Amino acid sequence: MNKNFVIYLLVSILIIVCTPYIFDDYGMRIINNIFIFIILAASYNLINGVTGQFSLEPNGFAAIGAYVTALCLLSEDLKWELFQLEDPAPWVLALNTSLVPALLLSGLAATFVAICLAVPVFRVRGDYLAIVTLGFGFIIKVIAINSPEITNGSIGLNEIPSVINIYWTGGMAILTVIIMLNIIYSKYGRAMKAVRDDEDAASAIGINTFKIKTMAFGTSAFFEGIGGGLLAVLLTTISPDLFTFFLTFQLLIIIVLGGLGSMSGAILGTILVVGGSEWLRFLDDSLNIFGYQTDAHPGLRMVVFSLILIIVMLFAREGIMGRKEFSDIFKRKRK
Questions:
Q1: What string of DSSP letters covers 200-222?
Q2: Cβ(95)–Cβ(272) under 8 Å?
Q3: Which of 113, 153, 103 is nearest to 133 (CA)?
């Protein structure tokens, strides 16, 4: 195993172990949210950055994972109490598992939908692919609203058991990044990069481009489903409005800012976007600047945050990391 990779792993474990003794409940909630978004961003980067397929589907797969996990964790009695528009479907009442099987079912459900979706989706490329996958996210939202016997419609699901902590989210984030890095540096990862760089040339040398794109799409969907499930457990309440295009747009900002195709960039981008937007929240309140008390300006933090993103992208056109990992930088310094 690469020496630098071992160092990253040890540092990550150290952070997970130490953070509960450093941050309060609010800080821990933000860190849990960061870890969940690392899962979502790293998996989204596999299809968008590594394979080069401009898809806009993460909100749909995250929604599938969130609803499956919620339905698995809610008890039968609680489902009868929560479902107000229509009675829950019999198979919905039958779903009742612990967290690990629920997350696995969430990932598998998202993967199954992704494989079914891959057949029509990968008949197109570029902007057309983006439009098709964007429509998929809207379809999932419409289905969630119009299936009250499964999702409780627009009301959503509440009182989801909060059975996760920093060890669950952090451990799952580490596992996701490890699997993604192993895929990237395998023969399948090299084939994905070939498809990204020139799909026609990759097809000409014998690479089954449809198989590679479907594999990347399904793998990405699996972890997006798990990330959606963890998000549902963290929030303890979900509704169709939670999984709008804004979630996909946020993930797109993260991977572009960090660097398309770089897992280190996905981690760094998540910390900056998710953590940075929370750190700047004080700008929305009244400020004391050299003795002068300003009025509160709700939304000012997003203006400042947007300006910071613009400045970063002006000086780092390929993102902060580009297509490099941290280990690549350390190797270059040694040389």
A1: HHHHHTT--HHHHHHHHHHHHHH
A2: no
A3: 113
Backbone angles phi, psi at 157, to 5 degrees: -120, 130
Q: Tell me the pairing of strands 292-293 and 288-289.
A: antiparallel
Determine the pLDDT at residue 63.
Answer: 95
Residue 291's region, left for phi above 0, alpha for psi from -120 to 50, else beta, is left
The distance in angstroms from the start CA to the end CA of the chain is: 20
How many residues appear in the chain?
335
Give the DSSP per-residue string, 7-32.
HHHHHHHHHHHHGGGTS-HHHHHHHH
Q: How far apart are alpha carbons 227 and 232 in whole angstroms?
A: 9
With beta carbons less than 8 A apart as the criterion, state whether 60 and 273 touch: no
* Residue for token pair 């303890």: 236
Token pair recorded at residue 164: 């996760």
Q: What is the CA radius of gyration of the chain?
A: 21
CA distances from 252 to 97, 247, 311 (A): 33, 9, 17
Phi, psi (degrees; rounded to nearest 5) at 292: -100, 125
The pLDDT, as a whole number, for residue 146 is: 92
What is residue 293's three-state secondary structure? strand
pLDDT at residue 24 tops 60: yes
